[in-house]
Amino acid sequence: MELWIATGNKGKLEEYRMALRAVPDIQIFHQGEIKGFTARPEDGQTFLDNARIKAKTLKAVKPNAWVLGEDAGLEVVGLNNLPGVHSARYAGPKAADSENVAKLLKMMQIRNVSPRTAQFKCVTVVITPDNQEWIFEGTMKGTIGPKAVGQMGFGYDPVFVPDNETKTLAELGPGYKIQHSHRAQALNQFLEKLNSVLPQQ
Fold it and tell me: Which residue in 54, 175, 183, 190 is a FRET match for 3, CA 20 to 30 A apart?
């Protein structure tokens, strides 16, 4: 089967490719492979809104394919769950990961946030070839470290320390994320459902 992923984020695509490498008969494609494709603004109020926007926009040009759209972000309890849906644009519309991380640490310092409890959240929307909509959700709880540490991953990985760990996601690396991340949880739920329905098709 062909699975089209509605993202241009290279880090996310690599995680999906690694996670799905062992799954037989799935070919991975992404929106960047479609000439002239234009993504709609992610202006939803929730992760689900944005995941649905991504999936439906790609589905419009790939009507017969399996399409996956997802939105994910970091919620810091002491910042009223910010940056949330604004995670990728926290420091501005075209902010680099390092700029978003720097703003997060600065805001937590200004507000003297303690405890530094946080979670990553992912909502995934899959639209089937016959236009059913499947929704999956994953969360990974942890804390925000005092400074960026580690070279692997992307986004807020250098400051996020998962529960029961002492290293950041950027230190723990992709193997850890494939097993434990919010994105991996949602993806595994999708694969379980896919396995349950494919034999009947």
Answer: 175
